[in-house]
């Protein structure tokens, strides 16, 4: 309906201009202005089409960044889960080592008393004593190493929490950027459609006018 109205108005304008063309030459100037309007409309259409292309490319880039952030979060969570499992295992082993140390220390004290009571067994008991003391040292060293490794896992878990927080911040920004670019892409698309219609309308007016003046 809007196109018909525009056409009727254009025909009326053209008819009016054709009536006064011989008087003052305004028709030719009006035709030139219509051509200029048509060219400007085409230029505007091209400009907004370029803007739309840039916006759509940016949407794609942001979506890829969001996917990469999701993959990174998944890996961090898996590492944190492994840290929890390893720490739990070491805690169980630590209890066992503490029991072993306690057992060996009890035997040391018992065997010290046996040395006093059984002189004949002093050599054998001394060897046992040295062996068990070596065991205590070995278990203690293992416990120290395990404590160090356990702390490293705990530190890694803390780092993972910090990294995930950073990912959350980046993801929030990326989502905001995505929404903004999608909004711009939609606005550019609307402008492209608007100027395309304007260019087509101007072109129809020029063609109609040229036909009337042939």
Write a concise keyword list for the protein shown above.
214 residues, Helix Hairpins, single chain, mainly alpha
Descriptive account of the structure:
The structure is a single chain. The chain has helices spanning 2-24, 26-117, 122-212. By secondary structure, the chain is an all-alpha fold. The chain has one domain: Helix Hairpins. The radius of gyration is 43 Å and the shape is rod-shaped. It starts with a helix and ends with a helix.
Name the shape in a single word.
rod-shaped
Distance between the termini: 28 Å
Note poorly predicted spans.
1-17, 20-24
CATH architecture: Orthogonal Bundle
Strand residue percentage: under 5%
| Main sheet characteristics | none
Average pLDDT, all residues: 80
What is the ordering of alpha helices and beta strands?
HHH
What level of helicity do the residues show? over 70%
- What is the name of the CATH class? Mainly Alpha
CATH topology: Helix Hairpins
According to DSSP, the number of beta strands is 0
Q: Measured on Cα atoms, how large is the radius of gyration?
A: 43 Å
